[in-house]
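Friendly challenge for the regulars: who can give me the structure tokens for this chain first? No prize, just bragging rights.
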Amino acid sequence: MPHHFFLDATELAAAFGLPAEAVASWREAVPGDVVPVVAGGPRRFVPMRLGMIPMGRQNARKRPVLETIVNARGETLFAKSAFAGLARGLLPVGGWYEWTGEGRRRRQRWVVRMPGRPVMALAAVWDVWKAPGGAEVASFATVTCAPNAEVAAVHDRMPVILAPDAWPVWLGEAEGDLAALLLPPPDGILAVEPAPKR
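First reply, four minutes later:
Bragging rights claimed.
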């Protein structure tokens, strides 16, 4: 699971044409954190929990999905019953972290970003879980694909990065082939560098 890092509210809002007041500033998020995701119809920021709560969802064998879903494989997203009926959103990030190596002292953290683009949009799917007592929790999972050449050096999967012209299609604001969007970016446009020590 990549741990994403984020930019401040002003940059995020400007990138998506949304009011800065709708989102607080944050720098890094891990599963369980609540972060703003861009939803469509109308386009807006919605606070969502990173890690989709699968209550009531079943797998192909009609068994309940019990684990929180953090990533959804793009290759099977539209075929698996566990993902049926989900809404689609955009997770705005400045990049994400990956790790290589084994053991705490030998692990290396890498930062993946796109030079020249301070805000990227990752494909996400989301749902609203209704808790006992009536409370509602919006939660999401990022969509992943095979890595491009740069990311393949540090991980065998990567989040799907959507170009701005694909945002309306993914959000359901325009017609288009959704499966065709779930591909890695061309080689040579991402930078993978050792992350600064914490």
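The longest strand covers residues 120-130. The radius of gyration is 17 Å. Your move, everyone else.
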